[in-house]
Design goal:
Keywords: Transferase. InterPro entries: Aldolase_TIM (IPR013785), PYR_CT (IPR000891). Residues 60-330 form the Pyruvate carboxyltransferase domain. The chain is an alpha/beta fold. The protein has 2 domains: 22-324, TIM Barrel, CATH 3.20.20.70; 357-458, no CATH class. It is 40% helix and 12% strand. It has 15 helices and 12 strands. Strand 4 (99-104), helix 2 and strand 5 (127-132) form a beta-alpha-beta unit. Helix 13 (396-407) crosses helix 14 (421-435). It is elongated.
């Protein structure tokens, strides 16, 4: 107690006693938190009601792993596809570069060609960064290409240290520090991916390790980033939950006890328990400047935090989009469907075919009177996706005309009204469906087929 310094906290303007400096806790046996992770049962969420304060950084941003983690769960993108998506990220991130970085593989010629073509664009944002194996040869490759930063895998749970790497904690720490030092020797800024942090010994390994990383940062004068990776999606954002599952607890520990500044702290989440978005937002709230994401959540197993979700989380927290062009999200969804051949589930928020389609009859009636009643925001303005009303037995001619105009984006002279012979013909089919006992709304594909057949029957070019 007597040896710890007392200093003024500039945020609270109160004197603060420095916390205990946590040494490495080496152990002969792995601590796999079997009380929280009984493999034969559902994992447990325990509480100790220790609350840590919100401390959102002045600047927050989004980073992307679509071309790295996102490619580990699907057919690899072509070079042209990567360049097209990278262009779109630049436009989506806006003039302030809210989408700050994109990480790339470097191993294949295709990946390197994509990096070179993206670098030729000359964009400040998203900055191009990489993910490599922890080897001197790969560090030199990063330097040769001209990148300033690279990700390095540093698994931190005893599951990985003991079972996968067959090391002790001390051996793993020394190995990792040696690798990071090699990276710094080449002048490259390392981004340390703390794999499986939500099953790790936070105070016995993670914080001692990060303290050493911050010493290397100061020694070399080169930033050393910390990416906290919720590899298995175990993180929870509940106040008072215990570590290692507590996202607030992890972020607080890294900032307050390991001395990692917010601008060097990043959260990387997975969606195994449907918590990726909430956990990423929580990381912002408690002090991480960056959250890592992948477009449409495409990633390992259940996927990563969806990039598009964090765009709207940012706007909700900041009260502004800060220049981000959210209509690009719709362009990307259409590109994936038409050019890449990736099917986005219809009810996926913001990008699914039916995310703003109202099917319930009583809801449709309200929506036709005022779309704010059942639409989350002006989806036409922000996503170039006008709200749709599904056709049912209560739609009437006006409802069918509204569906056709919004679904096919017919405006001005091209728009149809309820007096159109085509609308009347479609309504006859709809009425017949419900007269024979149907109780569900008409699907989009059914309407497309009926409209096509009806227009051919009436000799109308539609």
């Amino acid at each position: 107690m007597d040896n710890r310094s007392v200093r003024l906290n500039k945020k609270s303007n109160l004197l603060k006693l420095d916390e205990y400096m946590y040494p490495l806790v080496d152990t002969d046996k792995p601590n796999v938190f079997r009380n929280l992770f009984p493999y034969e049962e559902v994992p447990k969420i325990a509480f100790n009601d220790r609350i840590v304060p919100h401390e959102m950084p002045e600047d927050i941003w989004i980073t992307d792993t679509t071309f790295r983690d996102g490619q580990q769960s699907r057919t690899p993108y072509s070079t042209d596809q990567i360049v097209h998506i990278y262009d779109a990220f630049h436009r989506l991130g806006g003039p302030k570069g809210i989408i700050r970085q994109c990480e790339f593989f470097l191993y294949s010629k295709k990946d390197r060609d994509a990096v070179y073509k993206c670098m030729e664009k000359g964009y400040k944002f998203p900055e191009i960064t990489s993910w490599i194996r922890a080897s001197k040869k790969d560090f030199e490759l990063v330097k040769e290409i001209g990148l300033k930063e690279t990700g390095i895998l540093v698994s931190c749970s005893d599951y990985h240290i003991f079972y996968k790497m067959k090391m002790t904690r001390k051996q793993a720490l020394e190995h990792y520090l040696g690798v990071v030092r090699e990276c710094l020797e080449t002048g490259i800024s390392p981004r340390c991916h703390l794999e499986d942090i939500t099953r790790s010994d936070i105070y016995g390994f993670v914080i001692p390790f990060c303290l050493e990383l911050m010493k290397l940062k100061d020694e070399y004068g080169i930033p050393v980033k910390i990416r906290a990776c919720d590899t298995m999606g175990y993180g929870v954002n509940f106040p008072g939950a215990v570590i290692p599952r507590s996202v607030p607890g992890i972020i607080y520990g890294l900032k307050e006890h390991a001395g990692v500044p917010s601008e060097l702290l990043e959260w990387h989440g997975h969606n195994d328990f449907y918590k990726a978005v909430n956990n990423s937002t929580t990381a912002w709230l408690y002090g991480a400047s960056a959250v890592n994401s992948a477009l449409f959540g495409i990633g390992e197993r259940t996927g990563n935090t969806p990039l598009e979700a964090m765009v709207f989380e940012y706007a909700q927290l900041r009260g502004t989009l800060d220049g981000m062009d959210t209509t690009v999200i719709t362009e990307l969804a259409e590109y994936y469907e038409k050019e890449i051949g990736y099917h986005i589930p219809e009810r996926t928020p913001f990008v699914g075919k039916n995310f703003n389609v109202t099917r319930a009859g009583i809801h449709a009636d309200g929506l036709l009177k005022n779309e704010e009643i059942y639409n989350i925001f002006d989806t036409d303005k922000l996503l170039n996706r006008p709200v749709l009303v599904a056709v049912s037995n209560t739609s009437g001619l006006a409802g069918i005309a509204h569906w056709m105009n919004t679904y096919y984006r017919l405006k001005g002279d091209k728009a149809v009204d309820k007096k159109s012979p085509l609308v009347e013909e479609v309504k006859k089919w709809v009425d017949k469906e419900y007269e024979t006992g149907r109780v569900t709304a008409i699907t989009d594909s059914e309407l497309e087929k009926v409209i096509k057949e009806s227009s051919e029957k009436l000799g109308i070019n539609f």
